[in-house]
């Protein structure tokens, strides 16, 4: 049974039987809220075409220090081979995860101690879009070996006017991997701005 997390809650990443978790999948999902009527369409723009992008900042000493440690739609695999982004979803349409990132915890080099999972809206300013136009957003952690969902964090706050989202963190603490449900919205327009927060 998956644990439903609250904002700020931290949990140890273990198999449901208490064993060591080696391979995990981080799934992120969202839907465009569809306003009714022509007035709302003019007010909100074309919400059917919100392109959210999930990315991972791979940190050393809790800090993002090297551009090559960013995993996103333009760099789908981390240079260590331990983190694999499965590709970009342009619309958020359909059931289930919109983007998935696989992590081999045992293969992450010791110098890396934190993975920060973010979601931003592509061309949010130009398209006049923000996270208030998105519903049903979540981040979940799945045991990639058994396909069992271990924990889920539903992003239920009002994120109106927010352009990016820090969804959650997987981090190393005393030789153990944990997950932190962050759920913070920001007005950062893209990955370059987000990166400055983690340096």
Describe this structure in words.
A six-stranded mixed beta sheet has the order 1-10-9-3-7-6, with no helix packed on it. The protein has a six-stranded antiparallel beta sheet with strand order 2-12-11-8-4-5, covered by helices on one side. The model is unreliable at 37-42 (pLDDT under 50). The protein has a single domain (3-197), classed as Lipoxygenase-1, CATH 2.60.60.30. It is built from three helices and twelve strands, in the order βββαβββββαββββα. The longest helix is centred in the N-terminal third of the chain and has 8 residues, at 37-44. The protein is mostly beta strands and 199 residues long.
Observed structural traits:
199 residues, mainly beta, Lipoxygenase-1, 6-stranded antiparallel beta sheet, 3 helices, 10% helix, 42% strand, globular
The CATH class assignment is Mainly Beta
Strands ordered across the widest β-sheet: 1-10-9-3-7-6
Give the helix/strand class.
Answer: mainly beta
Averaging pLDDT over every residue, what do you get? 89
CATH homologous superfamily heading: sav2460 like domains
Overall tally of structural domains: 1
Assess the beta-strand content as a share of residues.
Answer: 35-45%
CATH architecture: Sandwich
């Amino acid at each position: 049974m998956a644990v439903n997390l609250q904002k700020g809650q931290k949990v140890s990443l273990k198999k449901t039987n208490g064993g060591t978790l080696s391979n995990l999948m981080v799934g992120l999902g969202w839907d465009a809220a569809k306003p009714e009527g022509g007035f709302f369409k003019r007010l909100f723009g074309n919400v059917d075409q919100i392109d959210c992008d999930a990315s991972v900042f791979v940190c050393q000493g809790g800090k993002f220090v090297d551009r090559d440690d960013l995993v996103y739609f333009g760099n789908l695999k981390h240079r260590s081979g331990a983190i694999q982004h499965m590709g970009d979803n342009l619309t958020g349409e359909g059931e289930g995860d919109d983007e998935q990132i696989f992590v081999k915890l045992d293969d992450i080099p010791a110098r890396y101690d934190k993975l920060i999972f973010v979601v931003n809206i592509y061309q949010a300013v130009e398209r006049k879009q923000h996270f208030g136009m998105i519903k049903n957003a979540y981040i979940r952690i799945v045991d990639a070996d058994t396909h069992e969902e271990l924990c889920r964090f539903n992003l239920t706050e009002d994120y109106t006017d927010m352009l990016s989202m820090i969804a959650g963190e997987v981090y190393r603490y005393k030789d153990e991997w944990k997950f932190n449900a962050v759920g913070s919205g920001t007005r950062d327009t893209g990955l370059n701005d987000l990166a400055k927060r983690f340096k």
